[in-house]
Amino acid sequence: MRYDSKYFAVNGPDNLFTLSRTPNATKFLAVGYVAISGALLFSRLSEYNKSDDPELKFSSIVSPIVQLIPSKIWKFPFSLLLSNFVDVEVWKFIVNFANLVIGGSFIERNWNGDSKELLRFVLVLGSLTNLVLVITTILLELITSHVRLDEPLDGNYTAFIGFPIIYKQLMPETTIFRLKNMGFLSKNFRFKLLPIFIMSYLTIFHLFKMHWIQLLLIWINFFACWTYLRFFQVLRNGEQTTMGDASDTFQLLYFFPDLAKPILKPIFDKAYHLVCTKLQLIRPFDNDDIDKSNAIAEQRGAKKVTGTVEERRKQLALQVLQERMA
Q: Are 155 and 131 in contact (CB under 8 A)?
């Protein structure tokens, strides 16, 4: 798809908008999303219209069956799963539906038609993330009175936040839109910038609304999605199987602005060393993993990260020297 004018150009890969044959998992997620969100809306409207209470607010009507309410989670544990299909905000429903249908189709095709993997990413990872959030909310309620356990949490952020991370992975240098002939305002907005743009918007939005738990939720979702894609996702392409994405461009550091990188780099390096090397909770990448992932990333159009090869060689030489001296 392409639109071009004097000052504005929109660009996107043609297969991103190929909807003639919607893959199975995408179809299931989209239908489930519309059905469950629609059923919730109908249920809330029905209860609101039947009520004789003039002070009843529509926003206060909730359903613990499909909405993530920490105080009700023991009675309705399946809400951890069903809340992945629910949105009550109109704007988010529209955006998320388009994201599911268009983005889900694109991702599923690029994951070699692996329907189970897309369902695993959206539903299994989403449900586990919701469980972490509920536990965190309950623990915070023990510390502060500002946290309420009877209010619903938005449990449907995995596709909203996770899909842009996948877009960055699959087509990092592809331009979404371009401003031109506007002097210093002329810029290319590429898919690799989409995750941090969305996270910045959501962070500012929830800070402004003072939704502290929701703010925590979006960042838990972000780190959960990236961690799964970085270290655990298994994709098969014929006889070749890849686990995770060890490419330099998919490092957590490169999701953040250049201004923040000098501050974040030592933090992320220490976290990686602690989790992967010291505690051995996650298998660390070796040079072969990184080289293979870099080759795949370059095929997708990712630019090489300068200095990383030399840095790895220095680290390897230092490691060998330390082993000899031990």
A: no
Q: CA 221 to CA 22: how far, in whole Å?
A: 26
Tokens describing residue 317: 């030489």
Residue 265: partners with Cβ closer than 8 Å, 6 or more residues away: 253
Question: What secondary structure letter does DSSP report for 100?
Answer: I
pLDDT along the chain (326 residues), means of 10: 60 57 91 96 92 85 93 94 94 93 92 90 95 92 86 91 94 75 67 91 90 89 95 80 89 92 93 90 88 88 69 57 59
pTM beyond cutoff 0.90: no
Q: What angle do CA 212, 153, 196 make, to 5 degrees?
A: 60
DSSP for 62-79 reads --TTTSB-GGGTTT-TTH
Residue 114 CA to residue 45 CA, distance in Å, equals 38
**In terms of residues, how long is the chain?**
326
Give the max Cα distance, the chain.
81
